[in-house]
Amino acid sequence: MNELDRLKKINESQAKQILSLENIKENPKRMLFGQDSQIMRTSMLYFNIFEPRATNMRYWKGDAGMPDTFSDRKKGPERKLSLIDEFFLTMVRLKVGLLVEDLAIRFSISVGLVSQIFSSWINLMYVDLKELCELPSKEVLNENQSHAMKDFEDVRVIIDCTEIFVQNPSKLDARKQVFSNYKHHNTFKFFLIGVSPQMAITYVSRMYGGRASDKFITCDSVDLLHNLEVNKRFCNG
């Protein structure tokens, strides 16, 4: 075996070690989703929705780059990973919660590129999916009322807040905003979530620091309160 053949063989061997959807298909034991084929099929359906716009998607560079990120007139940059593997990376991080440093090693790309890919896809998914999260009218709910909720015909949405732990910010002002007295830890109050009686997510608020109370977040979600026709005195009591 000459030197060129040896290097080709090494390259092929290393390529198989990189985490990618193609390699996962060849070796299901590496599946980070727990070998759940249903999750994979659902993920592929979503990818088919995102793919047309993702083709022209430019990598996220903060709020200042928002218009260019989703421009339909500009073709996206040359990519280290295929579109499907960028989407796969995003889903792995969402599902398993791996650090960007870990994903950089698994996908054989830089830490900075992992961050750019993840942020870009999250913003694309937000833009394309936010219209699916809609609070149904009373009429729609009544037409589709479940047997379990027959005694609660006036219920349109069930709401609650949740929190996730975050690292201790370096700036004192930021620490003050994210420290949760309830959790005794730095947290993000991870949205006010609204669920319909049929168990569909129908409302998601913006994110708040852990210092914010559930009541404050609820009263600050004016679009939700407006749709529910809540009396203004609700937040003044």
From TrEMBL:
<dbReference type="Pfam" id="PF13613">
    <property type="entry name" value="HTH_Tnp_4"/>
</dbReference>
<protein>
    <recommendedName>
        <fullName>DDE Tnp4 domain-containing protein</fullName>
    </recommendedName>
</protein>
<dbReference type="InterPro" id="IPR027806">
    <property type="entry name" value="HARBI1_dom"/>
</dbReference>
<dbReference type="GO" id="GO:0046872">
    <property type="term" value="F:metal ion binding"/>
</dbReference>
<feature type="domain" description="DDE Tnp4">
    <location>
        <begin position="159"/>
        <end position="229"/>
    </location>
</feature>
<dbReference type="Pfam" id="PF13359">
    <property type="entry name" value="DDE_Tnp_4"/>
</dbReference>
<feature type="domain" description="Transposase Helix-turn-helix">
    <location>
        <begin position="79"/>
        <end position="130"/>
    </location>
</feature>
<keyword id="KW-0479">Metal-binding</keyword>
<dbReference type="InterPro" id="IPR027805">
    <property type="entry name" value="Transposase_HTH_dom"/>
</dbReference>
